[in-house]
Amino acid sequence: MAMLVINVLCAGLVVRLVYVLYYNLCASPLRHIPGSWLCHLTRLPLTYHEYAANRRLYLHDLHKRYGPAVRIAPDEVSFATVEAVKQIYSVGGSGYEKTNFYTLFEHFRGAKNMFSTLHKGHHAERRKRVADRFTKTYIMQPNVTAIVEEHVRAFTSRVSQLIAAKNSVDIYVYLHAFALDTITHYLLHPYGTHSINGGEDMRQVEELCYHDTIKARYTELYFPRLHKLYELCARLFRDRKGPQSGYVLNYVRGTCAKSDVDESTILYRYQKAKEAIPPLEIASEIMDQVVAGIDTTGDALCFLMWHLSLPEAAPIQERLRTELHQNASASVDDLPYLDAVVQEGLRVYGPAPISFPRVVPDEGRVLDGYFLPAGTVVSCQPWTLHRFDTATFPDPEAFIPERWLEEEGRLERNRLFFAFGGGGTGCIGKHFATLEMKVLLREVYSAYKTSVAPDMKGSMEISDQIIVSRPKDQICLLSFHALDV
Ligand code: HEM
User: What is the CA radius of gyration of the chain?
Assistant: First the structure.
């Protein structure tokens, strides 16, 4: 009897397998989309590359081989065209809905936030609560620029202290400290951090920026039960003072419970919302914005300053410095070369270069000439959009700020620029981040020349986490040479 059951189960399994193979190769509406035969059959190659922290380069290579639309798994397609960006991320304001992938960013169990909300309507409501505080007009007001300038001064003052004592500065750590202090000021003043000077607050930088969680995050996504078991064991054996000890979560939760935060802060806005928001949900929104505002800005600035410090980038640094000196009192928004340097930095070294997955809505859609049934996962990745179309971005691996100053091709370049995502789910903090980057670069390159320090041995290879990318060795030693100004 037992043998019969086993035989029936095996036969059932074989029939199922044959059906899946037949469907994926011969019947699926996605079968006409180019891609390797293995990706048509199974998700395994993609999952393998995700665990190996190689999804970005794997997909880019597939696009180079198969073109602008590639089937990367039986139910998943990656695109590299302007039309796809528009459809997926902007149709109806915020495009298609987010996939389950985003539930990974729910920092307090059961308390959603803007980034982790999948339903379009609910997401839009959350975003509306604070959207006016992140518009370009609001961010460029003197009260906001003053916050950024204060923390840029703290950064340059720290640099000047450090160079008095040693030959090099690890900008990786201090740029992340700058990003943390600036965003927590905007969100939580007077309870923002002061990590730039070390001390207790530096623990938050350590916890947020030195983790390596990519395998754990994919396990949480694909094998949630296994992940729960792992969490349980980790809780028993983890060094509670070490990374991931919940220090930042406690800081955010504790601060969100305060009743005397400044009226200009985002926290105050949540606390005084017309419809009362549960405290855990407020903490979740704030945590979301803290996390979103640190690695991104810190890594983008780190890659950019490192690149500017390479010997071959000396002419770029020089041209930037000339513009800054000749326009010392201009707004950072009126400095075209500075703008071009930042754009090119985000094109080449954008800190969120990996796919932003979305689900095709009911009834399916036609995209770039292919019919996609409802439920298909579709995405674009900035890394490929910034490199694939070589008519728009000639010599795409080269760092050439001047390309952003050319009139010809401006529209195409802007349409393909995807460092902040797009539409109603794109980066809400993009104007804040851009301001931080521009003010910091202006202060640094008006007063210093930078070069890669002789003792810099770390690798600046781009290394992927689940959504952001950072320098592989998480160290970046630069020498700062003060100018006579
Ligand atoms: C150079 C710096 C930054 C880059 C490159 C960047 C990039 C991005 C990207 C690509 C997305 C969309 C991801 C997706 O659709 O899956 C995003 C979303 C988001 N970013 Fe940023 N970001 C930066 C800085 C910031 C800062 C400073 C904040 C501070 C508030 C912030 C807050 C957010 C939030 C809250 C979301 C979710 C928006 C939503 O779901 O509607 N980001 N960011």
Answer: 24
Atom of ligand 1 nearest to the CA of 179: 27
ipTM surpassing 0.90: yes
User: Does residue 254 surpass a pLDDT of 90?
Assistant: yes
DSSP helix/strand/coil, 118: coil
CB 159 within 8 A of CB 174: yes
- The answer, yes or no, to whether any atom of ligand 1 lies below 6 A from the CB of 345, is no
The reported pTM is: 0.95
Which residue, judged by its Cα, is nearest atom 21 of ligand 1?
427
Retrieve residue 458's tokens. 């770390």
Bridge-based pairing of strands 76-79 and 377-380 is: parallel
Smallest Cα–Cα separation from 218: which of 109, 100, 77, 112? 100
Cα-flanking dihedrals φ and ψ of residue 452, to 5°? -70, 130
Domain annotation for the chain: domains and CATH numbers: 75-482 (1.10.630.10)
DSSP 24: I
Sign, Cα dihedral of 284, 285, 289, 295: positive
**195 in contact with ligand 1, CB cutoff 6 A:** no
